[in-house]
């Protein structure tokens, strides 16, 4: 009788891929986790309990068939595992790297709830697709037949790229317009290489281009260009993301040495590509030898503190107004940052900036009071507990808001809510304007890459239905 390949969580302990030592990884921008060996991937996959109601799948925005591809991996049927994985996810190797699995699939794993330690779903997902690329299982995009309809997509981030992939596989003519010189949006210029090495993103961009997706890069869409795009295409998908930085109203915020997180991260990523980056070379976006203070508690703040470490900062501190348990960023990222030398100042909020150029941050100490409208305890100022945190570089990582697209594009009929994000159907992405769709953060507000991928795929499916193409969409090959 053949050995049962699954349910080994009782006898096999949870094992993540090995992490590079902090002293090594803080000197470069390479990914910090090693790859699983084949035997290790099988072993960890075999821990899955194959439960009747897979909460991992339920809590994945894409509803990936996680138990199925874990079982196939445990059985050594890796190509089949890849085919199941990519059937619901356009970029599984990217999600395997950057999804906050501790808040999604792994955080809801049944065996995690029973105290045995979650299955390492994200690491296995990454391993499956990286192996698929190495083995040539990832096939070029080859539509069975070309269609006459065309779709213009504004924004080459994960939502726009996912929509383009689905539409192009169905034979639709697709053009993506993006303000940057490389496609990928935050995957390319926002997320640092130690979380997502850039060749992983460029490989997908190349696959789309070779499959017939047309990229119009260095194209900053204005009112005239938007009208041209509308006229040239049968449908338009707005996938611009949200890039306007939230500001704090405090004395000295506009001074020298106070920078926006997106500018700091973009400069660092451009430098990693080998681009000429005058603002980095001048020292403006270079943390080397500086006392860095990052303000914020989300994943962008974690990217900034860990980037500063790798640039050679003298010290790096992160100010967050709530405590560790209430921060929005991934707890894994916090742990990684601490290992690398970042100091977190919990229950601390900026009151103002000292000096121009900056020499410090005036900090207010906080305590948690009654819950706010979100149910989290609201921070309250502790009177008389202010102090100055020395700093040569202050990075604002307080989140992002939508640009004023109706004004920028001279399209007042574009429906937006009071936060400036576009009003669109959450499934189809359709707006009140005929033929205009919107997906990702420009609808949801700042959110996760996996949600943008889901939105892009769902929107593409709706457009194909409108074109009479049926639902040929969800097979990614």
UniProtKB/TrEMBL annotation:
Alphabetical UniProt keywords = 4Fe-4S, Iron, Iron-sulfur, Metal-binding, Oxidoreductase
Tree of life domain: Bacteria
Q: What Gene3D superfamilies is this protein classified in?
A: Alpha-helical ferredoxin, FAD/NAD(P)-binding domain, NAD(P)-binding Rossmann-like Domain
* UniProt domain FAD/NAD(P)-binding: residue ranges: 151-456
Q: Which residues form the Dihydroprymidine dehydrogenase domain?
A: 25-136
Among the Pfam families in the record, one is Pyr_redox_2
Is-annotated flag, keyword Membrane? no
Q: Which InterPro entries match?
A: DPD_II, FAD/NAD-bd_sf, FAD/NAD-binding_dom, GltD-like, Helical_ferredxn
> Which PANTHER family does the record match to this protein?
GLUTAMATE SYNTHASE [NADPH] SMALL CHAIN, GLUTAMATE SYNTHASE [NADPH] SMALL CHAIN-RELATED
What is the designated name of this protein? NAD(P)-dependent oxidoreductase
Top-down, what is the taxonomic lineage of the species of origin? Bacteria, Pseudomonadati, Pseudomonadota, Alphaproteobacteria, Rhodobacterales
